[in-house]
Design a protein that fits this description.
The chain has ten helices and 19 strands. It is α/β, with parallel strands linked by helices. The protein folds into two domains: 61 residues, Beta Barrel (OB fold (Dihydrolipoamide Acetyltransferase, E2P)), CATH 2.40.50; 232 residues, Rossmann fold (3-Layer(aba) Sandwich). It starts with 6 loop residues before the first strand and ends in a 6-residue tail after the last helix.
Amino acid sequence: MSGRLKLRRGVVAAEDPLTVEVEGERRAAWADEVLLGEMREGDEVVVNVAALDLGLGSGGFDVVHVNLTRGLEAGRGEGEHVMKLNYASIQHPVEPVERPLAETGKESPVPVVVLPLHGHLAPAAWAAAQAVPGLRVGYVQTGGGALPGSLSRDVAQLRERDLLCGHVTAGGAYGGEHEATTVAGALDAAAERLGWDVVLAGPGPGIIGSGTAFGHGGMAALDTAHAALALGMPTLLSPRLSSADPRERHRGVSHHTLTVMRMLLGSVEVAVPAGEPVAIAQLAGVAGWKHRLREAAPDLEGYAASGLPARTMGRGIEDDPLFFAAPLAAGAALRGKG
């Protein structure tokens, strides 16, 4: 039957990096210890082996489904009354960050930068900090990629360096510092309850792709932009660009970004890196009268020296500078908004 879980029993063979022995084979694994508890060598576990068996470039590891040795006892949270991943076997209660009904109603001036994929998060956050020192920039993790908030090494690094002031997981995403039932609720709460100055919103690691027009994680940007516009929040798209992606549909301006721009029901700004006439022309052709291009200079050299993640799908910043130029331009475009 298509879609059936591919679960296998295994034993934790090593803790760091997590390795599980399954049917005599040692395999790379990942466990969401926020949900499942700690993993120790010798623990009996059940793992989902589908991604590693398929040889996926992202998500190419087994995922621990349950720890049978020490993961069956969970504490009870206080005030948690909304389910995340409801009716799935890993459903769990959370306390939603959304504001009470009586507090909502006004539009928010807090800008939202809509990210097309997780690789834009670190460059955009870094560039925002350079553009407006002291700006409170937070991250809303949407669907479209990995759902566990704890999976992102980029978020952990950005929080350690105070380049993000918070992390909200929205909709199906879970495990952030705050939980939101919807993306709209997350954006509203970030502006009006958490006190952020800017929201970076986009998928977690490992964007979903199928090679189809609409069946990909890039479509999450459409929903996020619509939510931001409906809340009266200035909305800026960070476009997915590349000069070196081996797939033609992602070279220049990715079809992900072009599709979102065509389907948007309202007007947004689109960040464009200065000095990239081909990408600018391509974006301008789709923007037409509806969207406005916002040109900004990306500091590629500064970002490369920052020590933050500078690789995407096996390519470094020196191999595909255009990919990184887009989110750097998006962050730089925030100058004057602090």
